[in-house]
Amino acid sequence: MNRITISNSDCKVETTSTWLVSLIQFAKDIDFFKPFQAFKLKMKKKEYSVFQKLATIMASVIMGCESTKDINPVLGPESLAANMLDMDHFPDQSQINLVLNRMDQTSVEQLQDIHHKLFLEHSHSLSSNTDIVVDIDQSGLIASTKTYEFAEKGYFPHKRGKTGYQISAAFVGEHSEVLDFYLDPGNVHCQNRLDSLVSSISHKLSEELKDQRVILRADSGYGAFENINKLMSVKGLRFIVKGYSSRKAKTIANEVSFESYEKADNAAWVYELPTTENGLRTILVQILGSKGELTYTMLHTNILKESMSAVEAFHFYNGRQTIEAFFKTSKNVYAIKSLRTSSFYGIYGFLWLVFMTHNLISWFRLFKLQGTKLQNVGVKTLVQKCSRIKGFVERTSKGIQVTVEPLSNLAKLLIEALSEPEYVQLSFLT
Question: Which of 310, 338, 393, 422 has its CA 20 to 30 A from that of 23?
Fold first, then answer.
């Protein structure tokens, strides 16, 4: 076995993205790629295996490629990264397009199963002794033409009349992990996937549910009483969900005097209604707008008052912005808004690879960047800037050395992070 050593000495032979080879090496170290080896797809193997093509897609996500067209110029020069995956060089975009277009429902089910195995084995959420907060939400993807399979008109903010798809996801914000997701045509309402997401949460976090350590947060799209009752029936699940009807909240507010409210922040007040017999709490929220107007909403929760006051519940609910930030990152950094194919299952499969790659990056940050000056650097900086930091490769009979010159502050931080005692050497199998 040869070894790769990170250093900042003077050695210039061939260049590589230090970020990319570090992620690939970490993935190899934790056997991240192992489940993908069994992935089956009806394709003739010529120069590359199906696994190698899937790994290429994940490498393109790590490097921030905005489309399959970027694979050739971005991954083309990355010989060392390709070698680490037993390839002389990465396949070109045409072969990646072929893989995506060949995917079907069985392919998606295989990827879903791979994700489940990887999550159970590597999730930091499962190793935590604290409460696990799971946010669920839906976000749209616009299809630019009528050729996209199963694309339908639906609700897309600021894109009225457009067609596309809806992503429904469960996300653990504290550890930045995708727990599960589903892709549907654009006209599918978010509440139609509530049962599926809750089932996924119950399956992956079964032991944590028994200990009542799982808290689900959801916005008003899931806030109909029918859905609240479903959540109440899940044993061990705690939740806080925004009410579906703002009109009902305003009607209730007409019966509440201003003096009865408790101040939550400079522009919000809360009032808690009597708890129902089954333990459901309803918190009325009054918000002062920028133009002096008052709006009302309600929060429904089964979390005990002793554990979370009405004011604390208000601020805790607002913490669900983590999943909104994740969707934004997925669209703008991982470029999922640029649909790689018009095939529905191809899009679905690509999204699975993106979200599993995101989890890989989250685990890398946790295990390899924790305690370094890069531990709080965002994914955008890692993918769009660190990925462009080049190291110089020297191949010798004793091993492979990647040399990074400290030409920028970010490069210096990357050298320091990857040169920590735990990560001085990167293994490389020839």
Answer: 338
